[in-house]
Specification:
It comes from Ceratodon purpureus. By secondary structure, this protein is mainly alpha-helical. It has helices at about 10-15, 35-45, 45-55, 60-80, 85-120, 150, 160-170. Residues about 120-160 have low confidence and may be disordered.
Length: about 170
């Protein structure tokens, strides 16, 4: 504040007026953070901020109100159309996407566990298996072998199956 020998607050400096001891802006807009008030002034206007701080808010809620106004003003300067609502919406979309990915991963785990339990219960029971293969060892696979389908179970699942299973898990 100019009256006490200190520099004026960021609001008074931007508005080019004398900062007094009774300045409503001084406690919330220090001189070393001029961008805070510049953003708030650009979006809300100095008169509206002053009116809100003086008349509409109790003393203990003013600091939080100024923080909210600064956040909204900076978001509105970055994104004039959506402001902080755009940031919130973007974060909500990211959360939904990550929840879907988690559901798919959980569905894949369930499918793998089901696959492993199916393959463990079938070990040594196929009539095509002879000799050492009855102890659960897999026979060597030949790419062109007609028996390939008897020994090989798919280890990957279609994404659509995962999505359907994920929807079942979420409901």
């Amino acid at each position: 504040m100019a009256g006490s020998g200190m520099s004026p607050c960021a609001a008074c400096k931007l508005l080019r007026r004398r900062c007094t001891r009774e300045c409503v802006f001084a406690p919330y807009f220090p001189p070393d953070e001029p961008q805070k008030f510049a953003s708030v002034h650009k979006v809300f206007g100095a008169a509206n901020v002053s009116k809100m701080l003086q008349q509409e808010l109790p003393m203990d809620a003013r600091g939080d109100a100024v923080s909210s106004m600064v956040y909204e003003a900076e978001a509105r300067v970055r994104d004039p159309v959506y402001g902080c609502v755009g940031a919130i919406s973007s974060l909500q979309q990211q959360v939904a996407h990550l929840q879907t990915q988690l559901a798919v991963a959980n569905a894949e785990i369930v499918c793998m566990r089901m696959h492993n339990s199916d393959s463990n219960s079938d070990c040594g029971t196929s009539k095509h298996m002879q000799g050492p293969y009855q102890q659960g060892m897999s026979p060597p696979l030949q790419p062109q072998s007609p028996e390939l389908h008897h020994y090989h179970r798919p280890t990957h699942y279609h994404r659509m199956d995962n999505m359907e299973l994920a929807e079942l898990l979420w409901t």
